[in-house]
Amino acid sequence: MRKIVLFSLVTLLVLSIAGQAHANFTMSWQFGLINNPNARQVALNIANAQQELLRTTDDQSGLDRFKESLDRMAMSKAVRDIVNFDPEAGDEGYRFVPVDDGWIYYEWDDEGEIMRIFHYADGSWTEITIDSGAMPSRPTW
Fold first, then answer.
1. CB count in 10 Å sphere of residue 106
2. Final residue of a structural domain among 28, 54, 80
3. The pTM is what?
4. How would residue 18 be classed by pLDDT, with cut points 50, 70 and 90?
5. What is the DSSP string of 50-92?
6. Tens digit of pLDDT for each residue in 36-61?
7. In this structure, what DSSP letter does residue 135 have?
8. Is residue 23 domain-resident?
9. Mean of the pLDDT values across residues 112-136?
10. By residue range, what is the domain housing residue 126?
11. Looking at the structure, do residues 23 and 73 belong to the same domain, yes or no?
């Protein structure tokens, strides 16, 4: 009988110490922000940034920001189309792309191997020419 009581007490003591250590290990993360000034500042900055995203000002509403992001995406697509254009891939060598304040039209000239880019805004066209020229030789080290 004494062996059973002694064994029960030892088991209870070991389990309580292990359980308390495990609880301290898993619960200690909750106090990480209180004692760490850097973590508090980071959490405060994140909270302020999230709160700022929810605000709308008189200058720019959520709809205006959405329109602006669509305009940026359209311009980014136009730039990607122009930069990634491969004349040997069989793609058509011209395209109209709408942008925020007008249109971009680009056209590949096979004879001169020149990319001509036109921007239409305020009723007039502006031309930019990109001459691919001959590919230079590889650099030597």
1. 20
2. 54
3. 0.45
4. low
5. HHHHH---SS--HHHHHHHHHHHHHHHHHHHHHHT--GGGT--
6. 667 777 878 888 877 777 665 555 67
7. P
8. yes
9. 80
10. 64-131
11. no
Look at the chain and report how many structural domains it folds into.
2
Amino acid of residue 47 = A
Interacting residues of 34 by C-beta distance below 8 A, sequence separation 6+:
40
- In angstroms, what CA-CA distances link 47 with 41, 54, 82? 10, 11, 40
Tokens of 36: 């760490």
Q: Which helix (H) or strand (E) holds 138?
A: none
Phi, psi of 114, deg, nearest 5 = -125, 140
Tokens of 70: 């669509």
**Residue 87: other Cβ atoms inside 10 A:** 13
Of 137, 93, 127, nearest to 111 by C-alpha is 93
Structure tokens at 115: 């990319």
Cβ-Cβ contacts under 8 Å for 54 (sequence gap 6 or more): none
